[in-house]
Amino acid sequence: MRYRRLAVLVAASLTPLALSAPAAQAATPAAPYDFNGDGRADLAVGAPAATVAGKARAGAVSVVYGSSTGLKSSTYKVITQNSPAVPGSAETDDAFGSSLASADLNRDGYADLLVGAPGEDVDGDTNDGTVVIVWGSKSGLSGARTLVNHNQRENDRYGKAVAAGDFTGDGLPEVATGSTGMFELNFVSGPFTKTGPFGGGNGGSLADGLPPFSSSYGVEYLSAGDVMGRGFSNLVAHGRVKGTDDAVTVLVDGKIGNFNNWLVRMPSGYVSAVGDIDGDGYADVAVGNHRETSADPAGAKGGRVTVRYGGPDGVDPSRAPLTLTQDTPGVPGSAETGDAFGSGVSVGDINGDGYADLAIGASGESTGAATTTGSVTVLFGSARGLTTTGAKTYTQNTAGVPGAEEKSDRFGGRTSLLDHSGDRRADLVISAPGENAGDGAVTSLRGTATGPTTTGATTFGPSTTGIGTTGTPGYGSILGG
């Protein structure tokens, strides 16, 4: 298997640079997406097809800040490659905002934002790709730098996927990125500083593994969580099976220097979310596969979501995978061709009972004559695991949900579960990237002791948070969280 490990970044003279000096350490690192350190998660919304300064599909990100009443769309920040202090410049097809992740990288008490732009041209290399770090502060996001690409010559579309966390158990953050080319999965090691040199890293190819990944698709999606209960995170990596476009998903242990030596096969899908559904100290993995079996043998009529419960060896062998479709008893609705159940998945504790819950988007769900209007189903966690008891489904025709069902809205294209109000209950955020002929929109439902409530529900689109609607920006195609 092709594999590269870098102890430090080496200059053109082959003189090794010293590792970054540790940044000033906050007593407790900020939780992901808490960019201003107020104890409330903020929301990052990607619009990778947004036009910026006349450049089509240059891409943009809106960050909407949390408040005591939840997301406050009047308090936002727009980030593009034309923003002050953001490296580079907005160019056609950069697709800035194609991936998002967050962690307190410099351990200053404020979460930082990572933004992938896989279409960025670098040093004459078309679609080489880049990742930008935008720094958190007391006043919110401010200042930025480009994340090093240790394997620039071997990779393309660097940043098509991104995740952040402690993947090695050394107490310091790392950044994992997906790309195409020779090394599809790359790590950059901390500590991180705003101006100093980056640490080392490593990269590996999954193209010769079992199962083999397609290097032309590369690693397309990443999620992270403490699946093995060791106090630091594993990675869930998604790609396509070599020679096909069928989904393949594996669990990666970043603590192993050559991570290809230990991969756990997971249910095949295109997106995933990680959280402790049964409260046993091991995070569980929910994998969404929205495709039909005619398009992907791991799919299902109308799409499916599969949950693997975590354990010390990656998965708990004593528990069978839990497969969910809209034909599963207790899941509202019925499985119909094209529903795309599993197009978006997220995990978080909505009702504050200590067990993570699961939100599943079905962006292709159709109602009456209107097609691909979309829906979201919420299932609740318990000590026994995920249960269908009390399952709830939301559409844009649900009483209290703003807007109305329209053709091709794709409500449920992405979902997010983060605590935006600081009440220790996750709020449900739902994107509809097809809203208003591709402008896109985001809807937020507050979490309560009985689940998401439509009382006080809010919705906003690109214009509300500073992104233009020229072309089809697809606001909400990506959600941070």
Automatic annotation (TrEMBL):
Keyword Metal-binding in annotation: no
**Compositional bias ranges of the Low complexity kind:** 447-467
Q: Where is the signal peptide?
A: 1-26
The coiled-coil segments of this chain are none
Q: Which Gene3D superfamilies match?
A: Integrin alpha, N-terminal (2.130.10.130)
Keyword annotations for this protein?
A: Glycoprotein, Hydrolase, Repeat, Signal
Single GO molecular function = hydrolase activity
Q: Name one Pfam family in it.
A: FG-GAP
Q: What SUPFAM superfamilies does its record include?
A: Integrin alpha N-terminal domain
Bias (Gly residues) occurs at 468-481
Where is the segment annotated Disordered? 399-419, 431-481
PANTHER family in alphabetical order: GLYCOSYLPHOSPHATIDYLINOSITOL PHOSPHOLIPASE D, PHOSPHATIDYLINOSITOL-GLYCAN-SPECIFIC PHOSPHOLIPASE D
User: What protein does this entry describe?
Assistant: Integrin-like protein
Native species: Streptomyces cadmiisoli
